[in-house]
Amino acid sequence: MGHDSHAARSPLDTRELLDLDRRHVWHPYGPMPGRAAPLVVESASGVRLRLAEEFCGRRELVDGMSSWWSAVHGYNHPVLNEAARAQLESMSHVMFGGLTHEPAVRLAKRLVDITPAGLEHVFLADSGSVSVEVAVKMCLQYWRSQGRGAKRRLMTWRGGYHGDTWQPMSVCDPEGGMHELWSGVLPRQVFADAPPPGFGAAPDEAYVRHLRETVGRHADELAAVIVEPVVQGAGGMRFHSPAYVRALREACDEHDVLLVLDEIATGFGRTGALFAADHAGVTPDVMCLGKALTGGYLTLAAALCTPRVAAGISQGEVPVLAHGPTFMGNPLAAAVADASVGLLLEGDWAAEVRRVEEGLRTGLAGAEELPGVTGVRVLGAIGVLQLGHEADMAAATRAAARHGVWLRPFRDMVYAMPPYVTGDEDLAAVCAAMRAAAAEG
User: Fold this and answer.
1) pLDDT tens sequence across 167-181
2) Which family does it belong to (predicted)?
3) Residue 137 bears catalytic tag
4) Dihedral through CA 163, CA 165, CA 170, CA 173, nearest 10?
């Protein structure tokens, strides 16, 4: 058979596609076979998803989720399309063991240039969860290389989420979180209390003492502290003062513990700063990036570290970081990522995020008066309606769709993380949809 043998296959009828999907395709956080039929997306452009069939009277929905917070430039962007096309012409993939290539080198240099000063080495991974695995492995191996193998636990604060693979699950909140099922099997880590809420709130000195004391009490067994700075994402979409990130940096320095900042959800402008660490003015020992890294085009993540960490590992008994995914440094993903970060930096991303923030603040003003809504919070291009009950996802999704918007509420909240390029009218629609979803869900 030649390469073109499948090129002329006719598209599946929507009913057939959904039947095959239900029987064979396992969706995120879903049962198998599937129970609720997903919406079939035919194409996507700008900030709109085009559906194969009408849903709640709509064939097009404004994407209020940036495809799980990654598609910051929207869809089908000519600059990113061209970067992908150009790279396909030379090579889509080549192994990274013993070989290198321009897209990966360019991307690594760009990431070093824009992340907090002192992060100089870049490990390119497949996904956000894998970058957290790599970050943890870096920290554990660093201390083992220093002859301090007892430092092998991790500390975090409650309310966090770091991914669905093994070590990341161990530092997600073990109570009420989606990984509670594994609480007797996962490594037992050290948990501080959740940070007090409010990005602009005055720091709670008692909580700062609690953080410092927790780090100090466990310092001899702690390899690292790992947290999401300023915004806790999938654990509850909560915001906290950057002062607590600074307090952790100081405590880690005082007690000789490494600090890992998980910026998979917050990186590349989402909170109003290029990186959430910039709000705190700190450099972590390791930083994890993902999601928006490729503008939502391809899966790619990175773990960046300081020379101290890299040198510590390289001088150890095993002088290599023994990790190497098959698709590490994938040229296609790296080329698109470099183009996506370039697109962000060449535009006025800060003004765009401020505009989205203002649109969310205006559109959600007074929503706390709605039945069932207990609070409203907005930071950067993130808007959240806190509910006093578990959201009815199906009802809330339908309510949003009737307003022409795709939202996916979870747990006890309706939230939006729209692409930065979302226009003012579409932002207003997103806010109206959030209100409707909160009222009906």
Assistant:
1) 999 999 877 666 677
2) Belongs to the class-III pyridoxal-phosphate-dependent aminotransferase family. BioA subfamily.
3) no
4) 30
